[in-house]
Design brief:
The chain is mainly alpha-helical. The protein contains 10 helices and no strands.
Length: 133
């Protein structure tokens, strides 16, 4: 039988993918709670009025805080963010899900949209970080 930690570590070998595991959930708990707070109109208003002051209410790490303020969604995911919770941030910014996700790639939004309209990324190519294939 495979040890669960070894099994879960294999998820980290998928290029461009961050699997939301229990460890990530623990790491990003407050980051995700902050993002979910933006579901309420009064909180969105407070956030838009002063992002720094609003973040002061949440026990985020310095790295999480910086990632939020710079809208570095890849970094937020690395720091335990869940894309469905983080969507509250870009929705509050007036950005579509597809446009926000395009910022996580090496493509412009029009390039990303075109790629997705053509069926998404090819399953061929880099399938393993460790293996380089």
């Amino acid at each position: 039988m495979t040890d669960v930690h070894s099994y879960l570590a294999e998820f980290d070998d998928i290029p461009g993918t961050r699997v939301f595991t229990a460890a990530r959930a623990r790491k990003g708990y407050h980051l995700n709670q902050f993002a979910m707070s933006l579901m309420k109109a009064k909180n969105r208003e407070r956030w838009k009025a002063d992002e720094t002051a609003y973040l002061d209410q949440w026990p985020l790490t310095d790295e999480q805080r910086e990632a939020v303020l710079t809208r570095d969604y890849n970094r937020m995911l690395d720091l335990g963010g869940n894309i469905y919770f983080l969507s509250k941030i870009f929705s509050t910014d007036g950005i579509s899900f597809a446009e926000a996700v395009s910022t996580m790639t090496d493509m412009s939004f029009p390039e990303y949209r075109e790629m997705m309209n053509k069926g998404g990324r090819s399953p061929e190519g880099n399938r393993s970080i460790k293996g380089g294939y």
